[in-house]
Amino acid sequence: MNNIKTIDPEMVSAQLFFKKDFYSSASNYLDFIGSKAKELDIFLEWNKTDYANDPITAKTEFFKKLDISNLDADFAAHWLKQYNTSLSEVKDKVKFEMGNGSIYSRGQSDCIGSLARMSNYTNNSTQLLSDRDMENLPVPSFYGAGLENQLSNNAKIVNSSFSKAANSLFRYAGFNLQEKVSENTLSHGQNLIPDYGHYQRMMKIVNDLTQKLRQEFKDFFKLTEFYSNYNPNSRSTNVQVIPPTIITTLVEGQVQYQTKLRARAADILTSYTNKAALDTIPIS
Questions:
Q1: How many helices (DSSP H) and strands (DSSP E) are in the chain?
Q2: Prediction pTM value
Q3: Cβ of 185: how many Cβ atoms within 10 Å?
Q4: Residue in 178, 225, 158, 131 with CA at minimum distance from that of residue 122
Q5: 88, pLDDT greater than 60
């Protein structure tokens, strides 16, 4: 579940009541959020900070006490985003009081995954011109590792097709211009000999790099995996789909039907509105 993004954080964050007991005694909302009771407690505590006498201090204490390591990756990512979008006064106090070892002081993004995505190192700087039809080496990538988990499969297929056609044409045209030296002696292919050795070196150390990242981030490595592998275009990692939901709540003993946006689920026609509509006098 580490690499899957769901609608659960948004569902749990819906503020129907200030006390958890009301969710079970005055509504059916717990039926929709399932086993997320612990996550609901966290959101209820967060909502209280908006009404505190000193919201800055209250929000600071909230983030200091929040244990992201015990949450699912999509909830951990939600609270990290909540922190990053908080007031600068809150972020500064949290960083100062928690120090550099906290998750809030670390930069998190899907760019971290570029260290382990070897397929994106197969570009013109590492591919041999002699492989003109790309029969021995992979087709060069047109985009960096940061886009690997943002593109749809169709977009990747189209990019690969364009890359193979364009690079094949370039290699047939440039092969005879290549220097006779068969080894790369200058960085970045300055002597027209791609640095294929870089690709080979990276292939050998990719496991070591992954382990170093795991040791560095420890309990928060699941967030690294989440950002590196979650693809908004993938149906297997993006399951933010829920069926139509009608929420029932008790207001002064009367059952109210609402949508997830707290709107009334059905129009209620009163005798007054019916009479007003039917008793219209036509203009003569």
A1: 11, 2
A2: 0.69
A3: 10
A4: 131
A5: yes
